[in-house]
Design brief:
Elements lengths: L2 H15 L3 H8 L3 H8 L9 H13 L6 H11 L36 E2 L12 H11 L6 E5 L6 H11 L7 E6 L9 H9 L9 H9 L4 E6 L8 H10 L3 E7 L8 E5 L16 H4 L3 H13 L10 H10 L4 H8 L7 H10 L1 H4 L18 H10 L3 H10 L5 E3 H16 L7 H10 L4 E6 L2 E5 L2 H13 L3 H22 L5 H10 L1 H16 L3 E3 L26 E3 H19 L2 H12 L9 H20 L3 H18 L2 H17 L3 H13 L7 H17 L3 H18 L2 H18 L2 H18 L2 H18 L4 H22 L9 H11 L4 H12 L3 H12 L5
Parallel strand pairs: 1-3, 2-5, 2-6, 3-4, 4-5
Antiparallel strand pairs: 7-9, 8-9, 10-11
């Protein structure tokens, strides 16, 4: 399902109805803020089939949706199977039966005895109802003469075309004919294949095309040409047929676009799948509604009748379907293995090598499946062989990207590799190459994000590309380039995370997450073997900025080779800020620890020492966030020693900052203040504005914990001014959050709550989960100490907010140092002691069960109570 498309259409209908989102939310029994986020497709939101069902009925009831064709068009655009939303009999019941239906064009009339050569279906077409509806609408238009179904091998184009043709039997006045082009490679054989299907006789030596034209000239007919990519040069024959036979319509299946006048391209995507990031959070009953899972289960039951989808295996089956991209052919081949392999073992083997496992099991006759479909690899090879040698070269090289990439990334790959190989530019432009590969169904364009286009290969296609890359002896070079490219992206993105384009940078990082992980894995694997990376300079070469570090900012890679150890340290360090923002502290710590655990060769360069010093400092930061202050101090001290050796003031200031922060978290506020001051003495508000402001922000806390609230306020105000200069909204939110916590200690609870809500509002826009979790933690104390409307109710509300905060903290791997701060624990115990242990625990559990949206709605209600 395409959530964004569905959401936009519902918003359009809602505006037309005159009702508001709150009224719709109430009508379908969900919170209006949850509805808003789902309509806008944020936070990986999705609609359940029941929600879709209820919203559509409301749109009909409110007369915003009045035509059946509009509803079917909505389903088609959003790629929703109507059968998963409405029961078959529901279409004849109110309110669905009130939808008006458009009369069929005069071209179509009922024919009592349809004639055709379509094979009888052996079972229902699964997961394609939306596509059938859309195609019937498209072919129902008088002006539509040619429709081409485009998709990769194994995507189910043939079965879909056959189903559409079957649906049109009895509607076309004459005949529907299916022409298989499998095994035909000569374009001149196309007319003969058509003539044979139409049973047209012609004299020896007479060309068949004139006879076909004469036969079809005044007949209303649908011609289905299957697997047209075999004879792509026969386009002119199709064009001639359409020009000479005015009542003919042609439906073509192909992996390649024909580019004929009047052609309507219809992309046949894989069957719908749940979001891979949400699979483990989706109920088995909802998973069962996805077309990919339905097909897998149906095919698995064909070989193992007792197989069922249940709560125990639903997630595994969903992961298997995602592993094979939801391709119908791949699903059938994988499901056939369920007779011998458990879902767990099948998923494991597919993850290791898809293509070798996805072969035809048992004996299957040629009438059931063509020889080129005996294995999925064969279908991919067929498309690959249709490319020119240069297109094949760049296709296999693009396989180095994991999941997705931008046009900018493809351009960098092609221009930088061409420059190192031939000191020239590629003979084909990146845009033309990507267009050609898309036309061959070898890559897919993803939905635009923030105005830039992204592309991806299906996992099966990427595996094939990597096989070809290995065969060509280019795998190591391309993975080295990939690593260097994403190191540049990570270090540049780290800088941008501190400025006005930070949210855009977060989104870019998020899109590149799989590529960053793949780059990190490659760097670590080579570093473990003490290998070098072939260094690729950016074009044109330019200095590379690195946050708060003079040594690494001087130049990127001056050498042709660089140690994989240095690269792994730098990449893990640059990614830390992104992982922290995303609330993935455990992953950030793993990456840094994996790099730091490696041993460097003797005679380390200043650049390598600086990379290690930065990694130690950033690892210390993560340990503070996970309340391991003792180890944080040890790592910060190691970093300080290296920076002093390198004589790098910004790097030393950053390491001192993290040492002070660890002391701060240990409750040693005076000692922390002295180290903060030492770090500030190495900088100025003008040399490194962001780092200066960040140190000042944390120093403010030490003033607050030692009851110097005026100095704390001055520090918070000044650091916010500096953050505003660099445009760091997240840091501004952090300052409001920390100031709110200090105001609780000062006893100014109303202002504290106001500061904390201001922080949460900013963080919600930025999707900064760590700061939200910490702010919720502070609000537990503010609400408990405020004692409104009474002490007992305040304690219950404090427990609810604490439960929500703990739930979010556990999700992101955050362990706040306040959990072990003695006087803060005294305050918590005081709030808790007002009610029984049972009531406190029940309220705590209630808070833990809340979604983030529900938790935020709760704190807003508590902040502005009706009784206050």
């Amino acid at each position: 399902m395409i959530v964004e498309v569905f959401g936009k259409r519902i918003q359009t209908y809602l505006r037309a109805s005159g009702y508001h989102q709150k009224e719709l939310a109430a009508a379908i029994s969900i919170h209006h803020k949850v509805l808003s986020r789902k309509l806008h497709g944020s936070e990986h939101s999705y609609f359940s089939p029941r929600e879709i069902h209820d919203m559509i009925l409301k749109m009909i009831e409110w007369r915003a949706l009045t035509k059946r064709e509009d509803l079917l068009d909505l389903f088609a655009e959003a790629e929703i199977d109507p059968s998963t939303i409405f029961r078959a009999g529901e279409w004849s019941e109110s309110p669905l039966n009130t939808l008006t239906r458009r009369e069929l064009p005069t071209l179509f009339v009922n024919h009592p005895t349809p004639q055709h050569n379509l094979p009888a279906p052996t079972g229902p077409l699964i997961g394609r109802s939306w596509a059938v509806s859309r195609l019937l609408q498209l072919l129902g238009r008088e002006e539509t003469r040619l429709v081409t179904l485009i998709g990769p091998g194994g995507s189910g184009k043939t079965r879909l075309a056959q189903q559409v043709a079957l649906e049109l039997l009895g509607i076309f006045a004459s005949r529907v004919w299916f022409v298989s082009l499998v095994g035909i490679n000569d374009p001149e054989m196309l007319p003969l294949a058509i003539a044979q299907v139409l049973n047209i006789k012609f004299a020896p030596g007479q060309p068949p095309l004139p006879g076909i034209i004469s036969y079809l000239n005044h007949r209303q007919a649908l011609l289905v040409l299957d697997n047209f990519e075999h004879i792509g040069e026969a386009n002119s024959i199709v064009e001639e047929l359409l020009a000479a036979a005015p009542y003919l319509k042609v439906l073509i299946t192909s992996r390649i676009v024909l580019h004929l006048p009047g052609e309507h391209e219809f992309s046949v995507p894989p069957l719908d799948l749940p979001d891979p990031n949400l699979i483990t959070h989706i109920d088995a009953k909802i998973l069962a509604n996805y077309g990919a899972l339905q097909l897998f289960v149906a095919r698995a039951q064909a070989v193992l009748p007792e197989f069922t989808l249940n709560d125990e295996n639903a997630v595994l089956i969903a992961q298997i379907c995602a592993c094979v991209d939801g391709l119908p052919l791949a699903l059938e081949l994988a499901a056939a293995r369920i007779k011998m392999l458990s879902p767990t073992l099948l998923l494991e083997r597919l993850s290791q090598a898809r293509l070798s496992l996805l072969t035809r099991v048992g004996r299957v006759s040629n009438r059931q499946i063509s020889s080129r479909h005996q294995a999925l690899r064969d279908t991919i090879k067929w498309s690959y062989d249709l490319l020119s040698p240069e297109e094949q070269m760049w296709f296999r090289r693009l396989g180095v990207f994991a999941e997705g990439w931008t046009l900018e990334s493809a351009e960098a790959l092609m221009y930088e590799i061409a420059a190192t190989e031939h000191n020239t530019t590629p003979s084909v432009s990146p845009l033309d190459l990507i267009t050609q590969l898309a036309n061959h169904s070898l890559l897919t364009r993803l939905p635009d994000r923030q105005g830039y286009a992204r592309f991806t290969m299906l996992s099966t296609l990427r595996e094939y590309a990597l096989e070809r890359l290995q065969d060509a002896g280019e795998a190591e070079k391309m993975r080295d380039w990939h690593l260097c490219y994403f190191l540049r992206k990570a270090e540049g993105g780290e800088i941008r995370l501190r400025g006005p384009k930070q949210f855009r940078s977060v989104m870019r990082f998020n899109d590149a997450r799989a590529n960053m992980r793949a780059a990190m894995e490659w760097a670590l694997s080579k570093a473990q073997e003490h290998k070098y990376i072939q260094a690729f300079m950016p074009l044109p070469a330019r200095p590379q900025e690195v946050a708060s570090c003079r040594t690494l900012s001087l130049q990127y890679f001056p050498d042709e080779r660089v140690t994989a150890y240095e690269v792994s340290l730098r990449l893990a360090t640059a990614m830390r800020a992104f992982w922290e923002w995303q609330g993935a502290l455990t992953e950030a710590r793993y990456g840094l620890n994996a790099a730091l655990d490696l041993l460097a060769a003797q005679g380390a360069s200043p650049r390598l020492l600086a990379a290690r010093a930065r990694a130690l400092s950033e690892a210390a930061r993560l340990l503070v966030l996970q309340n391991d202050q003792r180890l944080a101090l040890a790592l910060a001290d190691q970093s300080i020693t290296l920076w002093r050796q390198l004589d790098d003031p910004p790097g030393l200031a950053s390491a001192l900052f993290h040492r002070a922060w660890a002391l701060h978290g240990s409750g040693e506020y005076s000692a922390a203040n002295l180290v903060y001051q030492e770090a500030l003495s190495l900088l100025s508000p003008f040399s490194d504005t962001w780092l200066y402001a960040e140190i000042l922000l944390c120093q403010a806390g030490t003033f607050g914990f030692t009851s110097d609230f005026k100095q704390a306020r001055r520090c918070y105000t000044y650091c916010r001014q500096l953050f505003e200069q660099v445009g760091d909204k997240a840091a501004i939110a952090d300052s409001w959050k920390d100031q709110g916590g200090i105001l609780i200690i000062a006893g100014d609870l109303a202002e504290a709550i106001s500061c904390l809500l201001t922080s949460i509002q900013i963080c919600r826009e930025l999707d900064h989960k760590q700061y939200i979790a910490t702010a919720l933690g502070s609000l537990t104390f503010a609400f408990g100490l405020r004692e409104l409307p009474d002490a007992e109710t305040a304690s219950l509300n404090s427990a609810r907010v604490q439960g929500a905060a703990e739930n979010l903290m556990a999700t992101i791997g955050l362990t706040p140092w306040t959990d072990t701060t003695p006087f803060i624990q005294v305050i918590r115990q005081s709030i808790r002691s007002r009610i029984s242990t049972e009531r406190w625990q029940a309220a705590l559990d209630e808070g833990r069960s809340l979604t983030l949206e529900q938790a935020l709605a709760l704190v807003v209600r508590l902040a502005h109570p009706p009784y206050h």
